[in-house]
User: Which sequence fits this backbone?
């Protein structure tokens, strides 16, 4: 049989990802840090693209509450269960006598969610009936062993001093800056330089190093906390209610160079994409936080059910666009820096509470339990069922695993008497 070649006409549809579309998607899904790196790379190759960084004092949003606390431990609820588990695991790894372990446990019990001590060593010594010198000795031992560095600090200045020493960046100028954080908070660099007898540039250099430190090292253990970095959005409550804004200090300003030259069209296209990304991010962020105002007011335990489809319909975008925008995006709030994606949570059942809210309440129940008689998963299921949605024990176990919390047997701690 003789084969023959045949010519046929066929019509097909295929999506072609052009270079411009690929760049637009990359910019849309980039967080502030990733977008800054991309823009720096583009500006290095294209002289028509000009980047400028804001000069002067531009502390990260996460520093506002810490600096405003006046170097005193903030008043917060009990430390989250993840932080408690981490600290007591660290203490269990130390070779301590029963008396030393009792002091270490008392110091751990006094931790706030920020990672700072919520009680003075004097008060702790009086509460457990030991000498102040013994408490301070154990405190120094825990501070030296703690990871991340800064846990067990008594105030903001000590927290930062511990991190500066750990980074081998502690010198006389850094010490002077840490002694006058009130001037740093007000941006009075020249006055600080005069009072310490150094140049303003030397002061700015130390403040730049402080920007890389974590003012609240315990906050990273919260279930919804984003890593320490510059957040993409800032949510603040003013006289007229909550406002959401792009964190401009996290991104360089982008503009076109004067005159004409090759690459101008490409630079102009990047400008449009960055502006579009910022507009879309702000619209999505505002819609998410308007729906989750209760969480801003009361904490993650007040999360309400919300899906990406709900937000997409409200802002007139495709669900995939919303997914790209919130990927890796963080918002700074008075309650900490949160992942936007973590605010999406479905109801456990129709008309019931959000799964995310139940997970937060689970963490709070474990944080508040008696460490000598921790709650079993079955007991936790009964307690959480009182919120309006009956929960099975296996669901509680799944949530506990998601929060990286150990079983009741592993959470049980020694008695005060050793």
Assistant:
């Amino acid at each position: 049989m003789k084969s023959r070649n045949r010519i046929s006409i066929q019509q097909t549809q295929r999506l072609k990802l052009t270079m411009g579309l690929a760049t637009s998607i990359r910019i849309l899904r980039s967080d502030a840090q990733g977008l800054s790196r991309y823009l720096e790379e583009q500006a290095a190759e294209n002289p028509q693209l000009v980047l400028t960084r804001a000069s002067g004092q531009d502390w990260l949003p996460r520093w506002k509450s810490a600096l405003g606390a006046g170097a005193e431990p903030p008043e917060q609820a009990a430390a989250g269960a993840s932080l408690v588990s981490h600290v007591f695991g660290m203490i269990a790894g130390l070779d301590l006598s029963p008396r030393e372990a009792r002091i270490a446990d008392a110091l751990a019990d006094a931790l706030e969610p920020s990672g700072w001590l919520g009680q003075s060593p004097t008060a702790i010594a009086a509460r457990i009936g030991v000498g102040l010198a013994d408490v301070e000795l154990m405190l120094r031992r825990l501070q030296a062993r703690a990871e991340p560095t800064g846990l067990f600090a008594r105030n903001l200045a000590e927290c930062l001093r511990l991190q500066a020493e750990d980074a081998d960046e502690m010198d006389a100028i850094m010490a002077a800056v840490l002694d006058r954080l009130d001037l740093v908070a007000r941006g009075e660099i020249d006055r600080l330089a005069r009072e310490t007898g150094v140049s303003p540039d030397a002061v700015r250099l130390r403040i730049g190093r402080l920007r890389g430190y974590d003012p609240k090292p315990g906050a990273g253990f919260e279930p919804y906390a984003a890593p320490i970095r510059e957040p993409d959005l800032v949510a603040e409550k003013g006289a007229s209610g909550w406002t959401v804004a792009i964190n401009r200090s996290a991104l360089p300003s982008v503009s076109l160079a004067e005159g004409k030259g090759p690459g101008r069209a490409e630079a102009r296209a990047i400008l449009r994409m960055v502006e579009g990304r910022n507009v879309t991010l702000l619209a999505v962020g505002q819609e998410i936080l308007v729906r989750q105002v209760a969480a801003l007011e009361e904490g993650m335990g007040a999360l309400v059910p919300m899906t990406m489809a709900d937000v997409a319909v409200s802002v007139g975008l495709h669900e995939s666009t919303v997914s790209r925008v919130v990927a890796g995006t963080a918002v700074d709030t008075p309650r900490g820096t949160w992942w936007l994606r973590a605010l999406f949570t479905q109801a456990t059942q129709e008309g019931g509470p959000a799964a995310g809210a139940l997970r937060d309440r689970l963490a709070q129940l474990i944080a508040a339990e008696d460490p000598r008689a921790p709650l079993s998963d079955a007991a936790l299921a009964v307690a959480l069922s009182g919120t309006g949605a009956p929960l099975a024990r296996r669901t509680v176990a799944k949530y506990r695993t998601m929060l990286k919390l150990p079983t009741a047997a592993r959470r049980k701690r020694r008695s005060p008497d050793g």
Remarks:
- The domain at 355-405 is CATH 1.10.10 (Arc Repressor Mutant, subunit A).
- Confidence is low (pLDDT under 50) at residues 73-77.
- The radius of gyration is 26 Å.
